[in-house]
Every structure is written in structure tokens, then in C-alpha cells.
Design brief:
Layout (H helix, E strand, L loop, with lengths): L3 H7 L1 H14 L6 H14 L3 E5 L2 H11 L7 E5 L5 H8 L3 E5 L10 H7 L4 E5 L10 H11 L2 E5 L7 E3 L5 E3 L6 E5 L13 E5 L2 H11 L3 E3 L2 E2 L10 H11 L2 H19 L5 E2 L14 E5 L4 H10 L29 H9 E4 L7 H14 L2
Helix pairs in contact: 2-9, 3-9, 4-5, 4-8, 10-13
């Protein structure tokens, strides 16, 4: 699904020398490369504050801790997403309120958000799924109207541009109260282990986020708030610094691959290609088809036999997972999510897909889906 080895070989010398420098200096925690990456990412995103941390799940948890959300407070997010988005809500004793998504873009349904708001609602967590932004302009209008925090889950869309109706642009994750991202190896900007980051333009909030990520410390051995231990190690920062320089080029390569897929599958009665929205460009963390009257299990097995990997993101909606089942939901309450979980299939998507490989993948799919 992702060819990290070929990508590494193109930037091998920079990464190898950077890692060796960390080993030589033994600055494994909070070394110079961490501070350099923080500054570089702030510049790239045009955001005032980036707080590196250990992983994307920690980023979400630290964000919610910094907003002083209390047990029983409701946080709205999509049922069609990876579990981490809702996981931290439950871990903090908050109440996850799940809503449906749009059938064509996979993004959180803004009308469903509005219907789900109650006096207990304190925050919205839009997920920029598969690589393009949710409708942040409408979500921010809702948030302002109801005095809600907005925590953007940008784990799959780092580098994407949100385009406002007046034509101005902002990077995904820099529009809401806080943005959270993951640097898991398969992400568009991925390290060689675990890593994450939190970003905000709020000076006071940034200070608190940084404290929470470092045991609640304002200065060493002075603990002002309840915190956690969540740091991006220096070796991972070296990798991310090297890759950040190429992030836009990586996005262009992913878009080129997506265009090849689009052309191959256009107007196929059993293959629905991903829809692009007007308010965002797409950085294609995943290329996800919707299958129409196709045996997905059989197709996936046949593709695997021919050397074409394919993944299902996601086979079970959050509201049907044992950990998140609630009396407030029943089967059928999320018709779009339930349909998508039954019909989506993602094809290989990464920066190293060449025309020969893409031709083989698309030809194989078309031979099997008739």
C-alpha cells in the first residue's frame, strides 16, 4: 500500500547523516533537530505554535486536556473514521457523540453536527479524511454560534489547503482552535516510528499544550497542571525534517497517481471514484473507491493473489464497535457510514507509484470488475 523503502532511498544520505549526528551527540530527547522541525513546520503551515509530541492519539488527548473538558461533556465527531478520534474522548471520561458523513466526500456532515448539538456539547472534532478538508468554514460558523471548540484531526491531510469562499487559503489544522496530526510511517508526512504534533495560533493555549505534553511542567520540576509524557524523539525529527522539504512534491505525486486511477475508472458502473470538494485541494492519503454490486471480499482476495494490495478503511463504523455502542444509537441511524463501511476499498497510494505499476493495478481491477 505504501512504498517507504523507495522513498527513503531518494533521501537516504540526508537521513543517514542526520541520524548518525544524533547518535554522535547523544541528544536523543529534545535535541536540536526537534526544535528545527518545530520551527520548519510552523513556517510551512503558517501557524504560530507547533508542539511536537509522541503520536497523533496523544495529540488529540493533550488538546482535549488543554481545553479543560470535563467528564460528561459531549464531543461531536464522525462515526466513519479511525478509532483514535473517539478513543481519547472516552479515555478522558467525555461523551463521544457520533454523526454521519457525506456519501460522496466521506467528510463529516455539517447538518448532522448541528442536529447533534446540545447544552452539553463543548467541542467538534472534524476529521479531514483520506486527504481533503471537511467544510471548515461552515463548521467554524456553527462553533462560533454555539461557543464550541474545534479540534481538527489532520492525521490524513497534512499539507492540504482549505479554500475559503473569499478565495483565501489556510493549511488544514490551522483553522480551528487546535489542530492535531500523526507522523505514523504511512502518513503523508511520516517518520520511522511514532510521532505527532499539535498546532494552534493561541499563545495562552500553546503554553498550556506544551506544559501538558511535558508532565505539566512550566519549568523543570515545577508542575502547574496535570500532564503526560509525550515527546517527539530527535531521530524521528531528523526524518521529518528531511521529508518536510518534499511534502508538496509528495502531494503532487499522489495527485498524479489519483488522476491515473480516475481516468482508468471514470464512468465505470461498478466503481465510484473519490469526489473532490471545492473548498479544499486533496493530498490523497488514501485513494478510496466505492464498489457498486461487487463482492468486496472476493475482489480483495483476487487482487491479493495478483500482487495488488487493497485495504478497507473502515470495515466497522464506530457506533457498531463494542467499545462505543450506546443506547443513543441503533443500526440504521448512520445510513451513509454503514453503506460506506460495506462498500469502500482503497488501492495503493504513495509517492513512488510509476506508470507501469499504476497500469498494472488499474488493468487488474478492470479485469476483475466487469
Amino acid at each position: 500500500m505504501v512504498d517507504l523503502k523507495s522513498q527513503y532511498e531518494k533521501i537516504k544520505s540526508e537521513i543517514d547523516s542526520g541520524i548518525q549526528e544524533v547518535i554522535n551527540t547523544t541528544a536523543f530527547i529534545n535535541g536540536p533537530a526537534v526544535k528545527e522541525f518545530q520551527a520548519n513546520l510552523e513556517k510551512y503551515l503558517n501557524v504560530k505554535h507547533v508542539i511536537p509530541c509522541a503520536n497523533g492519539t496523544d495529540a488529540l488527548q493533550i488538546a482535549m486536556m488543554a481545553l479543560d473538558l470535563k467528564p460528561g461533556d459531549e464531543v461531536i465527531t464522525a462515526s466513519f473514521t479511525y478509532v483514535a478520534t473517539a478513543e481519547v474522548i472516552g479515555l478522558l471520561g467525555l461523551t463521544p457523540v457520533l454523526v454521519d458523513v457525506y456519501p460522496d466526500t466521506f467528510d463529516i456532515d455539517v447538518e448532522a453536527i448541528e442536529k447533534a448539538i446540545t447544552p452539553k456539547t463543548k467541542a467538534i472534532v472534524p476529521v479531514h479524511l483520506f486527504g481533503q478538508c471537511a467544510n471548515m468554514e461552515r463548521i467554524m460558523t456553527l462553533a462560533e454560534k454555539h461557543n464550541l471548540f474545534v479540534i481538527e484531526d489532520v492525521a490524513q491531510a497534512i499539507g492540504a489547503d482549505y479554500i475559503f469562499t473569499n478565495g483565501t487559503k489556510a493549511k488544514a489544522g490551522t483553522i480551528g482552535t487546535i489542530g492535531c496530526t500523526s507522523f505514523f510511517p504511512s502518513k503523508n508526512l511520516g517518520c520511522y516510528g511514532d510521532g505527532g504534533a499539535i498546532y494552534t495560533n493561541d499563545e495562552v493555549l500553546a503554553k498550556k499544550l506544551k506544559m501538558i505534553a511535558h508532565h505539566g511542567q512550566s519549568v523543570q520540576y515545577v508542575h502547574d497542571v496535570l500532564g503526560v509524557n509525550s515527546r517527539l524523539d530527535t531521530i524521528q525529527a531528523v526524518v521529518l525534517n528531511a521529508k518536510l522539504k518534499h511534502l508538496d512534491k509528495y502531494a503532487a505525486a499522489r495527485n498524479s497517481a489519483a488522476s491515473f486511477y480516475d481516468k482508468a475508472f471514470a464512468n465505470h458502473p461498478k466503481l465510484k471514484i473519490p469526489t473532490r470538494v471545492k473548498h479544499s485541494n486533496h493530498v490523497f492519503h488514501q485513494y478510496t473507491l466505492q464498489l457498486v454490486n461487487v463482492d468486496r471480499t472476493k475482489l480483495r482476495e483476487q487482487l491479493q493473489e495478483r500482487g495488488v494490495p487493497a485495504m478497507i478503511y473502515y470495515p466497522i463504523p464506530l457506533h457498531e464497535q463494542n467499545a462505543y455502542k450506546s443506547n443513543r444509537y441503533k443500526s440504521g441511524d448512520f445510513p451513509v457510514t454503514e453503506k460506506l463501511c460495506a462498500c469502500v476499498l482503497s488501492l495503493p497510494m504513495h509517492t513512488e507509484l510509476d506508470e507501469e505499476t499504476l497500469n498494472y493495478i488499474t488493468t487488474t481491477v478492470l479485469e476483475l470488475v466487469k
